[in-house]
Specification:
Blueprint (H helix, E strand, L loop, with lengths): L1 H11 L18 E5 L4 H13 L4 E5 L7 H18 L7 E6 L13 H9 L4 E5 L7 H5 L2 E2 L3 H8 L3 H18 L1
Parallel strand pairs: 1-2, 1-3, 3-4, 4-5
Helix pairs in contact: 2-6, 3-4
């Protein structure tokens, strides 16, 4: 009930409107990942991205449940965004906020208003990857893209390198024939 009331109030303020969604970069030069440094989520993301198109990943470690979760996640989103102002060369082009599945109590931090507000004001496009396919948090609604799982978020973040190279070869051949 609390989530539904909060969702309604934030929706009325435009936090979840499609016109506020940013485009995910096709080939990000850096990816910021906000998750726990322990557990399988970060390893899954690193492995999926490495398999598809090796891209530098910066981990901002946070608590993904409990009392500290919301504050740490909001601080991490704001922190990655402040890097853009300080030194754009080290700032990520994309942020993934990820956590494995759990009960509604475990995922509660991602329903907190301060997390939603930080995600909304993020200048860096953000993919929410909280829980598994059936889990939904308010972060999923405000994020630019919501992924069903952390591994799916990694797949959305980067193309497959060999497919991209094949496309470039095909287009290069077409260009040569055209000339």
């Amino acid at each position: 009930k609390i989530i539904e009331e909060r969702k309604k109030r934030l929706s009325e303020k435009g936090y979840f409107d499609d016109e506020n969604k940013k485009q995910i970069p096709y080939l990000p030069s850096r990816i910021g990942v906000i998750t726990s440094p322990n557990g399988s989520v970060i390893h899954d993301i690193i492995n999926r991205i490495s398999d598809r198109f090796k891209t530098p990943i910066d981990l901002w470690p946070v608590a993904v449940q409990g009392e500290k979760c919301a504050k740490e996640v909001a601080r991490a989103i704001d922190g990655f965004n402040s890097l853009t102002k300080q030194n754009p060369l080290i700032a990520p082009d994309l942020i993934i906020v990820a956590r494995g599945g759990g009960s509604i109590e475990d995922l509660w931090g991602f329903n907190e208003e301060l997390v939603v507000k930080s995600a909304f004001k993020s200048a860096i496009p953000l993919i929410s990857a909280i829980g598994h396919e059936t889990d939904t948090t308010l972060l999923d609604y405000v994020a630019d893209v919501s992924a069903p799982t952390p591994s799916a978020a990694a797949e959305m973040a980067v193309p497959v390198r060999h497919e991209l190279l094949a496309l470039l070869d095909t287009n290069g051949a077409r260009l040569s024939r055209g000339l």
